[in-house]
Hints:
single chain, DNA polymerase, domain 1, 5 strands
Amino acid sequence: xxxxxxxxxxxxxxxxxxxxxxxxxxxxxxxxxxxxxxxxxxxxxxxxxxxxxxxxxxxxxxxxxxxxxxxxxxxxxxxxxxxxxxxxxxxxxxxxxxxxxxxxxxxxxxxxxxxxxxxxxxxxxxxxxxxxxxxxxxxxxxxxxxxxxxxxxxxxxxxxxxxxxxxxxxxxxxxxxxxxxxxxxxxxxxxxxxxxxxxxxxxxxxxxxxxxxxxxxxxxxxxxxxxxxxxxxxxxxxxxxxxxxxxxxxxxxxxxxxxxxxxxxxxxxxxxxxxxxxxxxxxxxxxxxxxxxxxxxxxxxxxxxxxxxxxxxxxxxxxx
Length: 320
């Protein structure tokens, strides 16, 4: 691969590149389409999968096909009027409720950490290195993910050399790129040391136990207790979290995903009086629409805000 190709590839995240390649293969191989594609063929493709695939999946397929045409120097036929009209029609006739990850509540977080601590202690007593290491890692992953409000893929991309720890105060995590960082400027996130459920203590304990000095923070562990040099794959995070939650006795563990920690933190912060601006700055949301989806999840019926309004009105009325 030439230097030019390396820089071109670096402009697109690996997960995005792989998912786009899979989408293009689906169009060509499974559906039998030809590239470059005409607007009519793309419209027919959407029609054939309108009742089989979700709106988000169809939107992703269009984005992949659009990128292919742009990369190859062809006109982007996905933007043709007939394609846009067909897509709008599919949305009208096949509306789908957006699926959102179940937020991990603070009480559930305490239950998960309590279970992990018990397993870690028992494993250390019977000299089960593999189980002890695995659960020390899991505890750090859950606590850092929750209190920092990280997305699942961000957790898997954390690197030891990009994290600075201030004992008793907190830690700073640098990510070279995040979802909203289209200019690749990098973002630094901070997490505080806490009196309980502390992400800093959990992180330090994990890297000390695993003897990590650089490379990915969260890694696989084999049955002999050997820590891998490679980080966890983003696709492995959801089944890992569900296994942890199931072990801790959390009901309906299959409803949780890599976003459950982030949603759980937003739920906790909103319930404890964080205003929207503070929450956005802490988590790293760039627009209000993204943040409001989480705020609404924390107070789905707007009861807390309405009750606050009633209280203010009552106070004004009593003072009149």
